[in-house]
Amino acid sequence: MIDSIKLKLITWFxxxxxIIFTSLGFFLYYELKEIVMSSLDEHMHSEVTFLAGILxxxxxxxxxxEGVAExxxxxxxxxxxxxxxxxxxxxxxxxxILGRSPSLFLADKSLxxxxxxxxxxxxxxxxxxxxxxxRMVSRAxxxxxxxxxxxxxxxxxxxxxxxRSFRNRILITLPLIYLICVSGIYCISKFALKTLNxxxxxxxxxxxxxxxxxxxxxxxxxxxxxVAKSFNTMLSRLEKAFARQREFLSDASHExxxxxxxxxxxxxxxxxxxxxxxxxxxxxxxxxETSARMTSIIERILDASRIESKIFSMxxxxxxxxxxISEAVKLIEPSAVVQDVRVNFTSTGRxxxxxxxxxxxxVFVNIIENAVKYNRHGGSVEIEIGREENFTVVxxxxxxxxxxxxxxxxIFERFxxxxxxxxxxxxxxxxxxIVKAIVESHRGRIEFESVFGKGSTFKVYxxxx
Length: 465
Ligand code: ADP
Prior knowledge:
Elements: H1 5-60, H2 64-73, E1 86-92, E2 97-100, H3 102-105, E3 122-127, E4 133-143, E5 146-155, H4 157-205, H5 225-271, H6 277-308, E6 316-320, H7 321-339, E7 342-345, E8 352-356, H8 357-373, E9 380-388, E10 391-398, H9 419-424, H10 431-441, E11 445-451, E12 455-463
Helix pairs in contact: 1-2, 1-4, 5-6, 6-10, 7-8, 8-10
């Protein structure tokens, strides 16, 4: 298979030109043949008509026989030379030869006699007196009740010579024109594809390290501008993705640095001198808790990275939100008891939506867990399911610490944690970014309202199908 545009172009043009030039050659040759033959036929026909005209005036005076003898004897020019290539003869209606041109008579030859009386002129190509190809016309005329057949024949040698010479010229000229066209196409395709080379050189200069470079959209041929534009858009997306990945890696390593240094310093301090079994136990418990926290951070990071790169697949099914929320509340109940927070969920019956059950459970566990975590002792969490236009809306309102106005948008960013909450409760700052990505992948949205020091309200909108 040809994989070069230049070669493809040339091959296509070669094929098209071959077809055009070959058909043109044949067309011209057969047109000329047609013209030569019909002019010869016309000439011979006018010859027999002329002879018949002469004979007609003789017949009017009752001298038909003498007329025939006169016509055949008085022939001049090439008709008077034996086997000159130009002949005529006159027959009666029985096919008997009444007279011949001297070109036949002197060589004692005759033309092929027609089988039927040709009231209309009959043209045919046959072997002439000299056994080469001849063109012959036969036509019958009536003279005072007598039918006479006039035949004229001309050698095709001269016509064939003209056609041969024309064919030779075509065979030389057309390939020459063909060659000129092909070289023209070669030059044009080379010139046209030069701009592709410029484009590919520009593209080649852009590497992972130089993602901020762009293809010059202005100084490129018009046809390539859309390609350059799409390429630049793709580069911008790639650049952003690379930046996000770098940011993600640095955030993740930053988050893991704290527990790692806790483990390391706890080990260093413990190993500095001999300690009691109780001290060792307490150190191991701290290390165990910190590594458990690390595991949870790593799991969250992996989860967030999967969601970020959209490589998680969703298992969609009809699920009752009311049941999912009840399960989430049950899961969080123990820690709510410890925190002395009341979680109230009054189910208003089934509320079915099409979603990935596991992911949506994760959303509510996260939001309700936060509502408990960032609450005050003796506080409460109210959960409700309602409807707004085409959405099922789950509202989770708490009486907790709330978030400052300027930090409201930031809490959905990866690894973002409000400073105050860092001091109070453990967390990774990944939960809400995951929640937002999951809800949006369900074509839903999440809204957040908060009054600092009083409480926060999260509203999750999921489309009803
Ligand atoms: P994490 O809870 O692990 O810190 P999240 O992404 O779930 O991470 O939350 C990000 C931040 O948003 C929290 O650190 C907290 O400061 C703030 N936040 C989340 N939910 C609430 C809430 N119900 N009340 C007050 N602040 C909240």
